[in-house]
């Protein structure tokens, strides 16, 4: 089960990177198009969709790798027991917020699909298509935080915290 979760987080990170590649290709197509006198219709829209997908799909992977910004100057000064309590409280609050966000994003995708919402621009795109990676990314982050929360409640050190501690030791 553990390797499956890790593969899901890595897949999320790879898809995030693919979004960055798509943005690069769209911008390159626009530049070449301007040189040869043609436009790439809705390139800005598609680049925006790829940016949103890349951002949200990268959240779970970044969380697992300890890449999110945290106040480690304060956290690392705690002794082990208060630090574990603080981690559990913060993860509980984060999990509650992410459960709400997962529901809201999934509901938004569903409503866009039901009501046949489309984007404005040269190429009308059903809005549920660019919204789906955002919902998937939030759900993946929700699962990553749930995993860390369970580890914290069991008294283990969450994966992101191990990465942060290793980075802190490298800086010394």
TrEMBL record:
Pfam families noted in UniProt: DctQ
Bilayer-crossing residues are 12-40, 46-64, 85-110, 130-153
Q: Where in the cell is it found?
A: Cell inner membrane
How is this protein positioned relative to the membrane?
A: Multi-pass membrane protein
Residues annotated as domain Tripartite ATP-independent periplasmic transporters DctQ component: 23-154
The cross-references to InterPro entries, in alphabetical order and at most eight, read:
DctQ, TRAP_DctQ
Q: Which UniProt keywords apply?
A: Cell inner membrane, Cell membrane, Membrane, Transmembrane, Transmembrane helix, Transport
Which superkingdom heads the taxonomic lineage of this protein's source? Bacteria
Extract the PANTHER family matched here. Answer: 2,3-DIKETO-L-GULONATE TRAP TRANSPORTER SMALL PERMEASE PROTEIN YIAM, TRAP TRANSPORTER SMALL PERMEASE PROTEIN
Q: Which family does the record assign?
A: Belongs to the TRAP transporter small permease family.
Subunit structure, interactors included: The complex comprises the extracytoplasmic solute receptor protein and the two transmembrane proteins.
Q: What does this protein do?
A: Part of the tripartite ATP-independent periplasmic (TRAP) transport system.
> Can you name this protein?
TRAP transporter small permease protein
Give the source species: Marinomonas arenicola
């Amino acid at each position: 089960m553990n390797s499956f979760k890790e593969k899901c987080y890595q897949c999320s990170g790879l898809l995030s990177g693919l979004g960055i590649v798509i943005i690069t290709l769209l911008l390159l197509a626009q530049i070449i198009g301007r040189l040869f006198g043609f436009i790439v219709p809705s390139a800005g829209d598609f680049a925006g969709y790829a940016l949103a997908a890349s951002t949200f799909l990268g959240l779970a992977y970044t969380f697992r790798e300890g890449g999110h910004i945290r106040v480690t100057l304060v956290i690392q000064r705690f002794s082990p027991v208060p630090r574990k309590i603080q981690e559990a409280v913060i993860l509980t609050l984060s999990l509650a917020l992410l459960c709400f966000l997962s529901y809201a994003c999934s509901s938004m995708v569903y409503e866009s699909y039901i009501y046949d919402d489309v984007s404005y621009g040269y190429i009308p795109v059903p809005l549920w298509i660019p919204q789906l990676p955002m919902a998937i990314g939030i759900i993946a982050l929700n699962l990553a935080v749930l995993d860390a929360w369970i580890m914290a409640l069991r008294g283990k050190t969450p994966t992101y915290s191990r990465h942060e501690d290793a980075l802190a030791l490298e800086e010394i």
